[in-house]
Design goal:
Elements (H helix, E strand, L loop, with lengths): L2 E7 L3 E8 L2 E9 L9 E10 L4 E5 L6 E4 L4 H4 L13 H4 L5 E8 L8 E3 L4 E2 L3 E4 L5 E3 L6 H14 L7 E4 L8 H22 L6 E4 L4 H9 L4 E6 L2 H14 L7 E3 L6 H4 L2 H8 L3 E3 L5 E6 L3 E7 L9 H23 L3 E6 L6 H15 L6 E6 L5 E5 L6 H5 L15 H18 L4 E6 L1 H8 L3 H11 L2 E6 L8 E5 L1
Helix pairs in contact: 5-6, 9-10, 12-13
Length: 489
């Protein structure tokens, strides 16, 4: 399927949209103030070892210490010696407080969690991923043919320079690559590693040894391929920088880079800003009249499928089946667009026929196969729900561009004005038993005060008479509906 890549670049923010058949499939955002650090290599210092968790905290110069689990300590799993004890060595035998070590970020900080680290360094190129500590040569799982996998390994081994150390993973993009292209990637990656090693011997920890590519450079390296028809960018300076990058590392892409010269902003012209707004909504309408309800929580994401106004089938079962089929493709797209990860529960409309259930699952897996992020679908549970997981690679779209509502604190609802009125009445009654002020003054939002002046005027007057004190009312325009103060005068 052909695709276009649209890039909106400013000094403070870069946005990359991947468009297929006129619809945005994926949106990537990088902001200068909060640029991700996955792929960066640091010289870190172990600040604390936790044997009970088989983990360590490592200072790499960020606000929060980063997290290193024993499973991500390369020496603890494989080691550089022939000792078999290294494979199961506990973390307290491998690391100690104050130790300096080279680490790479494998997961960005999320919420209150620090970055996750690995001591096995990997440097990605256009065709290969270099593993400088591991002599293994692997092949991307997306290349399924065993004969082709074996041939690629043999080709790469034949191209390795004499005395070269380390290994490589062959990326999917290397399937059609020439020997010259592979040699160029090998040379580039090994030079990068030598630069990193050189810096690590000269700088004190913590220190940034290697900064991963920018978002636009990664888009050219990882997303642009023979299916890409055009890459449009609206910033002349960034276009020239990308052309220079493409000439060195992705020459086949150079001719596809174009300057966007429209009068309207590039994202507005392609209605991408509108699509982003829809991607932040809880409800997603389907063309058939059905709709999805997407709820994202800390633990998991739930997606509920509803028929809505769709009545196009010959019978009810067919209507449900067609709605679920359309929903399967819409769900796969929304997962990519919103970058939802972790545990995901899908509540398709109940289907009586096993054949229909199998078909919907098959369509969902096909739609997810186009996703660059790894996912796994476990099938229907006994409750008729579909359990799946999708790897967390970065913050979701909603976490990048929005925050919890200051009024409801992320609950999605607020107490009614009448409920707040009754809370205030109970609070005044409690205060009157403990204190003896001249009067009570209620400071609250406009809807609450309006209710006290109208429908709830009688309960307020009765309370005032019962406690023998005046209750004054005052509007505070900056208060949310649940906020109030009771001032003792």
């Amino acid at each position: 399927m052909t695709q276009e890549i649209l890039i909106n670049h400013t000094a403070h923010e870069t946005r990359v949209a991947i468009v297929q058949q006129g619809a945005i499939q994926e949106l990537l955002i990088e902001r200068a103030a909060t640029r991700g650090i996955v792929g960066n290599v640091y010289l870190g210092k172990v600040s604390r070892v936790l044997p009970g968790m088989q983990s360590a905290f490592v200072d790499i110069g960020l606000e929060r210490a980063a997290f290193l689990h024993v499973a991500d300590v390369w020496q603890a799993r494989q080691g550089n010696s022939k000792s078999s004890n290294n494979a199961t060595a506990p973390i307290e035998k491998v690391l100690f407080e104050g130790q300096t070590l080279m680490v790479q970020v494998i997961k960005d900080p999320l919420g209150t969690k620090g970055a996750r680290l690995s001591t096995q360094i990997s440097i990605a190129g256009r065709l290969l991923v270099h593993l400088p500590q591991d002599p293994h040569i692997g092949v991307s799982q997306r290349i399924g043919d065993e004969t082709e996998r074996s041939q690629l390994r043999q080709r790469l081994q034949g191209l390795m320079p004499e005395g070269a150390k380390g290994g490589f993973i062959i990326r999917t993009s290397a399937e059609e690559a020439s020997d010259d292209d592979l040699r160029t990637d090998i040379d580039y990656l090994q030079k990068r590693w030598q630069q990193i090693l050189g810096l690590s011997g000269k700088q004190p920890a913590p220190y940034l040894l290697y900064l991963d590519l920018s978002l636009t450079q990664r888009a050219l390296r990882d997303i642009a391929d023979e299916q890409t028809t055009v890459i449009q960018i609206d910033h002349a300076g960034e276009l020239e920088a990308l052309r220079e990058f493409a000439r060195q590392y992705t020459p086949s892409i150079t001719g596809k880079l174009k300057m966007f010269a429209g009068d309207r902003p590039i994202f507005e012209l392609h209605s991408i800003d509108d699509e982003i707004e829809r991607a932040l909504a809880r409800r997603v309408d389907l063309k058939s009249g059905g709709y999805l309800i997407i709820d994202q929580t800390e633990a998991l994401t739930t997606i509920d499928v509803n028929t809505g106004g769709f009545v196009g089938g010959r019978n009810f079962d067919e209507t449900i089946f067609k709605t679920n089929l359309e929903a399967a493709h819409a769900i796969a797209r929304q997962l990519r667009l919103r970058n939802l990860g972790g545990i995901i529960i899908l509540d398709f409309i109940d289907m009586a026929a096993q054949e229909h259930r199998d078909t919907v699952l098959s369509e969902l897996r096909k739609a997810l196969a186009r996703d660059r992020t790894k996912s796994a679908v476990n099938g229907f549970t006994s409750l008729g729900l579909v359990e799946m997981t999708r790897k967390r690679t970065r913050e979701s779209l909603s976490h990048i561009v929005s925050e919890s509502c200051v009024v409801c604190a992320g609950k999605g609802h607020v107490k009614t004005a009448r409920t707040i009125c009754y809370e205030i009445l109970r609070e005044i009654e409690r205060e009157a038993k403990q204190f003896n002020p001249r009067e009570f003054r209620v400071v609250a939002s406009q809807p609450v005060i309006d209710l006290f002046l109208e429908e709830e005027a009688q309960p307020l007057a009765s309370l005032s008479a019962a406690i023998g004190k005046t209750v004054a009312l005052q509007v505070e325009t900056v208060y949310g509906q649940e906020q109030y103060d009771i001032v003792l005068m």
